[in-house]
UniProtKB/TrEMBL annotation:
Keywords: ATP-binding, Cobalamin biosynthesis, Glutamine amidotransferase, Ligase, Magnesium, Nucleotide-binding. PROSITE patterns: GATASE_COBBQ (PS51274). Signal peptide: none annotated. SUPFAM superfamilies: Class I glutamine amidotransferase-like (SSF52317), P-loop containing nucleoside triphosphate hydrolases (SSF52540). NCBIfam families: PRK01077.1. This is Cobyrinate a,c-diamide synthase. Its cofactor is Mg(2+). Belongs to the CobB/CobQ family. CobQ subfamily. It comes from Undibacterium seohonense. Residues 2-173 form the CobQ/CobB/MinD/ParA nucleotide binding domain. Pfam families: CbiA, GATase_3. Pathway: Cofactor biosynthesis; adenosylcobalamin biosynthesis. It comes from the Bacteria.
Length: 426
C-alpha cells in the first residue's frame, strides 16, 4: 500500500515511478487504486501496462477486494495499491484496507520543506492506527545531504525509495491529472521518473510477502442478465471516466460492447440496444460536441426509439439544453434534458453515495465542479454514505436516466443491468 499524510504528497507519481521501474526490470506489476477514481488509474495503467482496478472496502466490499488481490498475486511479481487522500482519512480508510489483508504500507512523504521531521511524521503514521509500516518513500529530495538527514531521523524505519524533485510533473486540471492520451511524451516522462527513483533493494526485498489461500476467497457467479444485448459506449476525451470493472461487469452479464466517439462525430452504432454515456470532460470539448451533427442526430433518434440511455456526470452534461463553461461562454448541447449546466471553480460535490433501486443498493460516488438548474422533477435520489442524507438527483425522461452519480456496477449486477434494459426504472 502506497499512502501518505494527505493528498498532494506525490502518491500517484511515486506509484507510477515504481511500477514503471519494475516493469522495465521485466517484472509483472499489477496496480490497484483505493477509493473511487478514474484519472489516476489511467496514468497508473500507462505506467504498468495493465488495467488498474478499484480496491475499496465500502465501494467494492471486503470479499471482492480479497478475490481481486488473490487473482493479482497469482499473476504478478509485485502488487501496488495506491491509497486515497491521507492514510487514515475516510471511513473506511486506506489504513483499514491495508490492515484488513495485512498489506505492508509505504508512506510517501513530501520532504521538500523538512528534513529530520520526516521521522516524526513516519512514526505518527505507523503508530496512530497502527499499520504495518514497511518504510518511507522520501519524495522531492533536494540532495544527497538532504536524504542523509532524513535517514538519520527515521530510527528503525527504512527509506525504501527516494525521488528527486521533478522538473516536469504530471500535469493536472480541475478534476485531477490530465488524461494520459492528452500528454505529449507521457512515456518519456514516466521513463524519466522510473530512472530518477532510487530504491534500496535490500530493504525492498525485506518487505514481508503476502500469502492467500483458495479457501479465503469467495467468487461471485455473475448472472447473464444482458445476454444478447449490445450496449454502445461513448469513449473519447469527453467520455473517458469508465471503471474497468464496469466494462467487465457488462461483458460478464453477457453484453456485447461497442465503442464510438461523439468527439469524432461518430453516430451511435446501429446494432446498439442501449447506450451508456459515462463521465469525462465534455465542458472542455463543448464546441466540438455542439457541432457533431451525426452524433446528435443519432442520439435524438435513439431516444425517439425509446431505447435505454444511461448517462452519468459528464454524460449527463452532454444531454442538457445548454452548458455555461468556466469562461462564461454558453454552448448548446443535445437538448434531451431540460435545463442548464453551469461550470464553477469550486467543488460542488464529492463523496461515496448509493442508489437504492428496486433491485437493491447500487454503490458509487460523486465528484463534480458544476451545478444543474432544471425544471425536471427527481425520479429518485442517491444517499450519502457518511450522513445518510439525500445525495444526487436521478432524472428520468422516458427511457433516459441521467445523474451526477457514478455507479460501480459490480456492487449490484441486477441493478446495473436494469439501467440498460427496455424496462429500466429506478
Amino acid at each position: 500500500m502506497i499512502s501518505a499524510i494527505a493528498s498532494g504528497q506525490g502518491k500517484t507519481t511515486v506509484t507510477a515511478a515504481i511500477a514503471r521501474h519494475f516493469t522495465q526490470q521485466g517484472k509483472r506489476v499489477r496496480v490497484f487504486k483505493t477509493g473511487a477514481d478514474f484519472i489516476d488509474p489511467m496514468m497508473l495503467q500507462q505506467a504498468c501496462g495493465g488495467p488498474v482496478l478499484s480496491l475499496d472496502l465500502w465501494l467494492v466490499g471486503l470479499p471482492a477486494c480479497r478475490a481481486l488481490l488473490m487473482e493479482a498475486a497469482q499473476q504478478a511479481d509485485l502488487v501496488l495499491i495506491e491509497g486515497v487522500m491521507g492514510l487514515y482519512d475516510g471511513t473506511p480508510s486506506s489504513a483499514d484496507l491495508a490492515n484488513a489483508f495485512g498489506v505492508p504500507v509505504l508512506a510517501v512523504i513530501d520532504a521538500s520543506a523538512m528534513a529530520q521531521t520526516v521521522g516524526a511524521v513516519a512514526l505518527g503514521l505507523r503508530d496512530f492506527g497502527p499499520v504495518q509500516l514497511a518504510g518511507v518513500v522520501a519524495n522531492r529530495i533536494a540532495s544527497d545531504g538532504h536524504l542523509s538527514m532524513i535517514q538519520s531521523a527515521l530510527r528503525d524505519i527504512p527509506v525504501l525509495a527516494s525521488l528527486r524533485r521533478q522538473d516536469q510533473a504530471l500535469p493536472e486540471r480541475h478534476l485531477g491529472l490530465v488524461l494520459p492520451d492528452e500528454v505529449g511524451g507521457i512515456d518519456e516522462i514516466l521513463n524519466r521518473m522510473a530512472a530518477d527513483v532510487s530504491l534500496d533493494i535490500n530493504a525492498w526485498n525485506a518487505i514481508p510477502r503476502m500469502h492467500f489461500t483458495d479457501d479465503e476467497v469467495t467468487f461471485v457467479e455473475v448472472p447473464q442478465l444482458l445476454a444478447g444485448k449490445c450496449i454502445a459506449i461513448a469513449r473519447d476525451a469527453s467520455f473517458a471516466f469508465l471503471y474497468p470493472a464496469n466494462l467487465l461487469a457488462l461483458e460478464q452479464m453477457g453484453a456485447e460492447l461497442r465503442y464510438f466517439s461523439p468527439l469524432a462525430n461518430q453516430a451511435i452504432p446501429v446494432q446498439a440496444d442501449a447506450l451508456y454515456l459515462p463521465g469525462g470532460y465534455p465542458e472542455l470539448h463543448a464546441e466540438t460536441l455542439s457541432q457533431a451533427q451525426d452524433w446528435l442526430q443519432s442520439l435524438a433518434a435513439f431516444q425517439q426509439a425509446r431505447k435505454p440511455i444511461y448517462a452519468e456526470c459528464g454524460g449527463m452534461i452532454s444531454l442538457v439544453d445548454c452548458l455555461i463553461d468556466q469562461a462564461g461562454k454558453v454552448w448548446n448541447m443535445a437538448g434531451l434534458l431540460s435545463g442548464t449546466i453551469t461550470m464553477q471553480k469550486r467543488l460542488a460535490a464529492l463523496g461515496m453515495q448509493s442508489w437504492m433501486t428496486s433491485s437493491g443498493e447500487l454503490r458509487g460516488h460523486t465528484f463534480h465542479y458544476s451545478t444543474f438548474d432544471s425544471p425536471l422533477a427527481a425520479s429518485a435520489h442517491t444517499v450519502k454514505q457518511k450522513t445518510q442524507e439525500k445525495g444526487e438527483v436521478i432524472y428520468q425522461v422516458g427511457s433516459l436516466q441521467a445523474t451526477y452519480f457514478h455507479a460501480y456496477f459490480p456492487s449490484n449486477y441486477a441493478a446495473a443491468a436494469r439501467l440498460f434494459l427496455t424496462e429500466n426504472r429506478s
